[in-house]
Amino acid sequence: MIEIALSSETDFEGWRDAARRLCAAGVSPADVSWRTPGDPPSLLGGDSEPSAAPGAAVRAPKRFVDLARKAACLRDHERFVRLYALLVKLQERPHLLDDPADPDAAWLWAGDKAIRRDVHKMHAFVRFKEAGESAGGRERFAAWFEPEHRILELAAPFFMRRFAGMDWVIVTPDGTAAWGGATLAFGPPGTRGDVPADDAVEEQWRTYFKSIFNPARLKVSAMTAEMPKKYWKNLPEASLIPDLIATAETRNRAMQAAAPTQPSRLSQRLIERRAAQAKSDAEIPATLDEARAQAERCERCPLHCNASQTVFGEGPGDARLMIVGEQPGDAEDLAGRPFVGPAGQVLDQGLKEAGIERTHTYLTNAVKHFKYERRGKRRIHQRPTSAEIDHCRWWLDLERELVKPELTVALGASAARGLLGETVKIADVRGRVIEAGAGPALVTVHPSYLLRLPDPVRKAEEEARFVEELRLAHGVLAA
Ligand code: URA
To answer: Ligand 1 centroid to 216 CA: how many Å?
Structure first.
């Protein structure tokens, strides 16, 4: 038996490296034991790994890799065993994931559903409490949460986007996630005692819940399906539920006795339409199409007031390369598509010379609305402020989360700020692959910078360097 020791309960990368080696060497799933730090120590020394047959290649669709990454978070002792069994079977049956009769494939899909549900519940049920001030004088909040699966790292980026302006820590039995305004850091497990006991925010939750609880609409089974009882112990408002249910009937009768006159059918329809819109805008889009539709109505900052439309990213939803510009220009604002004006032509030329297909690339901008100043009939581009870029980062982060590019190229300083969340000097970072939150990034100059260079020699040099940096991006993907 070959023993593989993984470094954590969710060590997907460790599993992937070992699984690739073992599969290339033709090792049967029955001959591998996957061990995590939570397993008791093994009494037997494991067998050594055989070497791979020369030229042996291991193949797995990107879909499998994405699903497997989530499955590694399942609280299922067999998760790594089953993932390896799937990888081995995929070598012979590349369409295995579409076979509902295969028990391992069915397990993988069910796991995906369970993880997505658990992440969704964590997003809905984390309740922050005041925890004093952090060193920089920013308000600090803390929450205790017990997810069903080990999903902290999957769920935490949502809180980073939603609560970017405050410092917070989420403590769970599997680990902690902490945000201090710049980076999201993960630490060791904690206990409920690490979070303040009761506070004014909890009372606000109870008041809010009481005010939205409608006894006339009470359906206990639907309510407990939405808000399963296992989460109640950490929800301040849950203590109200038994009493609200018990008194619903009486309060409902009292409400009917005092019923106000009904609004007209037209205003009722308008109210419902507005409520449906608000509800869908409050939901985090799960696909690029949903994100694009929601972004069309974006009013997160005043830039939408003057722009003709939102210019959302475009390109394949599974692109390996994402390119981020600053903001749409005049031509893009009218066309509703990124990089179709003069800067787009410079970019297209650079991509061509670097051997990158634009149609295989997801193109977007740090800011999704055109910011300009009107001079006569002309609309003159104005640089977005850091605050505008930070506001719009919500969309860029979401695009990165949905597309999951292997590499993101930032064109210029605004794009770099959108990716990194802080201002950097292009000269300090350009031309190297660096870590940028959700994945690696490469920073280069913006095509408009090349258009503006007056000296032809300098311009030729900078254009060559730009192409070189795009080529580097291409090379990173090829590797
Ligand atoms: N400049 C950008 O940064 N993005 C565009 O889409 C067009 C010009």
So the answer is: 52
